[in-house]
Amino acid sequence: MAAQAAAAAQAAAAQAAQAEAAESWYLALLGFAEHFRTSSPPKIRLCVHCLQAVFPFKPPQRIEARTHLQLGSVLYHHTKNSEQARSHLEKAWLISQQIPQFEDVKFEAASLLSELYCQEQLHTLEKDLVSACDLLGVGAEYARVVGSEYTRALFLLSKGMLLLMERKLQEVHPLLTLCGQIVENWQGNPIQKESLRVFFLVLQVTHYLDAGQVKSVKPCLKQLQQCIQTISTLHDDEILPSNPADLFHWLPKEHMCVLVYLVTVMHSMQAGYLEKAQKYTDKALMQLEKLKMLDCSPILSSFQVILLEHIIMCRLVTGHKATALQEISQVCQLCQQSPRLFSNHAAQLHTLLGLYCVSVNCMDNAEAQFTTALRLTNHQELWAFIVTNLASVYIREGNRHQEVLYSLLERINPDHSFPVSSHCLRAAAFYVRGLFSFFQGRYNEAKRFLRETLKMSNAEDLNRLTACSLVLLGHIFYVLGNHRESNNMVVPAMQLASKIPDMSVQLWSSALLRDLNKACGNAMDAHEAAQMHQNFSQQLLQDHIEACSLPEHNLITWTDGPPPLQFQAQNGPNTSLASLL
């Protein structure tokens, strides 16, 4: 017994001596590091060297964790090496998790990490999407390590969103497939699970809409709408998740509801269900107004601007130009309140003004607005949309811009290397080529392009493109003297335009029906069509005069800098109405 006691005492003495030695070298290195850090000027490189020298001694966990924390803090505050800072802070947090009653290191590491992550997420705001994707990948892997499949799904879905923004579709598809599996397999808080499903389905729906596939998206959109209805019936669970890493939340329920309204509006507008788009826009804007009374979150203003952008396009189609112009002014006011909002939506704002200018026949202003929008965007789909509309302006202007027009048409040639994957935009490019061939008198070529538009628009229920193609084909057949075939095109064009409703196509169709029936000797039908044409003309003329008389009409001359703060009143319309009549 005496021998065992002596051995134990000897071991204890050795351990104490070792601990004392460890403490002495550690304190010495720590002292040197602090000396270099507080020098004037600070000698950060030498400070880091001293702290790094701790690890070869294989110190106890407490010293190892604290040294990682000190290194992470020095690198975060005094250098630009955020990657190493993050690595040391994450190690400090992980090691401190294994040590009882070591909350000071654990909480300080977590606090610094949260600051670092917030700083690094600014990569997204600064359009450094590559770095942002890398960081989200790190977050997903970290969530997997700590056993949080919920937070892993949030990171992966966020990464998928950025990859969609970058149009990296080959990377998006397997990632979304993995996300779908994780979401379906995760068993946890019902609201958290449904919120993951909403995030996942929103990405799927927007992916389809970006591709112009408004028919293919319907099953996903229906699932999304059912999902948000389920969430609205669930009560928030006060029980906190057992895993602290599951405490993240994507969006509040109320914000998700607005988001689902928004993607429904986007779908309705693309498909040509404009009354449905109006209905959901009204619901969404009403919800936004309530939320903004209590919540100043910037995302609410973003939602509002995107909703207004879509409903403005609907107004221009349905013949409500004055209302559209006032809503453009409203977008300007929202952008004046937020430089970042204006930066993100300036190109869209000038595009909307260009579309308004076309609707009131101010073609020089339309050209200026579209050209400004092209200068401000690097978004491929928006670029193709603007070029398509600018080409249609040049086509209507005749021979003034032939060289520029040919260049634009070549850049959006749907028969060759079309710049984007959007089904809808490619179909629109065929229509513009058909319109150009029609104005050139090359009717067979025009028919080929327009039939391609019809085939593509019918495949995805692009109702407005279908109506435009039918009425233009009807016009071509009328010019060629084929009245029967012309009637077969114009009648369904009118029916579809009435359903949308598209005021310009109704005006065009009614004029053709009037002339067709007159040529065929159908006096009563010709009179009825003439009356319809007169009614549409009067409605459009009245709206035209009202819009051009608004002080906001002066926005058509704004092409540089932030939106103007105020508008001077107009004496009256100063544009030609020939294109309307």
UniProtKB/TrEMBL annotation:
<dbReference type="GO" id="GO:0007064">
    <property type="term" value="P:mitotic sister chromatid cohesion"/>
</dbReference>
<keyword id="KW-0132">Cell division</keyword>
<protein>
    <recommendedName>
        <fullName>MAU2 chromatid cohesion factor homolog</fullName>
    </recommendedName>
</protein>
<dbReference type="GO" id="GO:0007059">
    <property type="term" value="P:chromosome segregation"/>
</dbReference>
<dbReference type="GO" id="GO:0051301">
    <property type="term" value="P:cell division"/>
</dbReference>
<dbReference type="InterPro" id="IPR011990">
    <property type="entry name" value="TPR-like_helical_dom_sf"/>
</dbReference>
<keyword id="KW-0159">Chromosome partition</keyword>
<dbReference type="Pfam" id="PF10345">
    <property type="entry name" value="Cohesin_load"/>
</dbReference>
<keyword id="KW-0539">Nucleus</keyword>
<comment type="similarity">
    <text>Belongs to the SCC4/mau-2 family.</text>
</comment>
<dbReference type="GO" id="GO:0005654">
    <property type="term" value="C:nucleoplasm"/>
</dbReference>
<dbReference type="InterPro" id="IPR019440">
    <property type="entry name" value="MAU2"/>
</dbReference>
<keyword id="KW-0131">Cell cycle</keyword>
<keyword id="KW-0498">Mitosis</keyword>
